[in-house]
Structure to design on (305 residues):
């Protein structure tokens, strides 16, 4: 009986040793690497293919300026000055007093404005006349923002086009403006020609002259399309592609795509072998260097020096 048990134990030990040897021969390098602490290859940085909308826009930064600078003149009739009632560099609403005359009549603001200068006689020492006297004002019931744009963007812009405006002082709020003028004469520089466009924005009193403003003019939009981050697209021209990654198998495969419009963050893509929910590999540098991701280039406007 003892002999049988002993032989059985020997057989079990031999089988265990044989199994261990087989495992070592098959996976010895991996086991040694893990024991030695060698780094294992990390999965790539990916993002899912999503379905949504993409807006392409001309963007830039400008300074808030008055709608106009004017010299207001008094009426033809002569009146002696009683008092000048308008503080300098303060907002004066339409209808508020600028001047009180000795006979009790008043000269009022024809629109919301800021008084910057004036030439008037001293109290009760002369009549106010249109030839000799004026009040210089900046009109602020509406304001202008001038934005220089690249010549390559002009074809997508037109007078009357809507503009979204956000002030540096309150970027959470968006104001509605329109392009009121596109300058016919450009300025040539090292980066090409730029043309000044003027954006007119109604002022409810919250916009102050000299503020910075961020402008965005939507020039194209695609809805219900597949989108990926711009750093997922490689190649140029008709040879663009993305790399689809299977997390379960670790497999990567190149998928040809056609790139559409981009907002600078995501780009519209289409391809027979690309589907919503696929994971695409991102360029970890996250740049567009060397890749033309869209059929229309990203358009932006930066103020010239």
């Amino acid at each position: 009986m003892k002999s049988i048990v002993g032989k059985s134990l020997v057989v079990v030990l031999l089988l265990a040793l044989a199994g261990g040897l087989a495992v070592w021969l098959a996976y010895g390098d991996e086991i040694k690497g893990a024991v030695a602490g060698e780094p294992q290859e990390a999965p790539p940085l990916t993002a899912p293919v999503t379905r949504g909308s993409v807006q392409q826009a001309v963007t830039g930064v400008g300074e808030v300026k008055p709608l106009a600078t004017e010299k207001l003149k008094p009426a033809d009739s002569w009146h002696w000055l009683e008092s000048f009632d308008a503080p300098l560099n303060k907002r004066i609403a339409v209808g508020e007093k600028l001047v009180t005359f000795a006979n009790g009549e008043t000269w009022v603001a024809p629109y919301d404005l800021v008084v910057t200068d004036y030439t008037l006689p001293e109290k009760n020492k002369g009549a106010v006349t249109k030839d000799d006297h004026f009040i210089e004002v900046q009109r602020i019931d509406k304001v202008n923002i001038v934005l220089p744009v690249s010549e390559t963007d002009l074809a997508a812009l037109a007078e009357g086009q809507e503009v979204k405006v956000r002030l540096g002082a309150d970027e959470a709020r968006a104001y509605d403006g329109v392009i009121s003028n596109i300058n016919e004469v450009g300025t040539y520089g090292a980066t090409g020609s730029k043309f000044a466009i003027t954006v007119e924005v109604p002022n409810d009193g919250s916009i102050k002259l000299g503020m910075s403003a961020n402008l965005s003019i939507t020039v194209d939009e695609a809805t219900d399309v597949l989108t990926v981050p711009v750093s997922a697209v490689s190649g140029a021209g008709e040879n663009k592609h993305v790399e689809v990654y299977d997390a379960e198998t670790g497999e990567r495969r190149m998928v040809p795509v056609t790139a559409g419009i981009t907002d600078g963050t995501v780009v519209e893509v289409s391809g027979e072998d690309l589907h919503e929910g696929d994971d695409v590999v991102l360029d970890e540098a996250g740049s567009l260097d060397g890749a033309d991701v869209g059929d229309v280039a990203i358009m932006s406007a930066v103020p010239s020096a």
Summary: The first helix runs from residue 2 to 36.
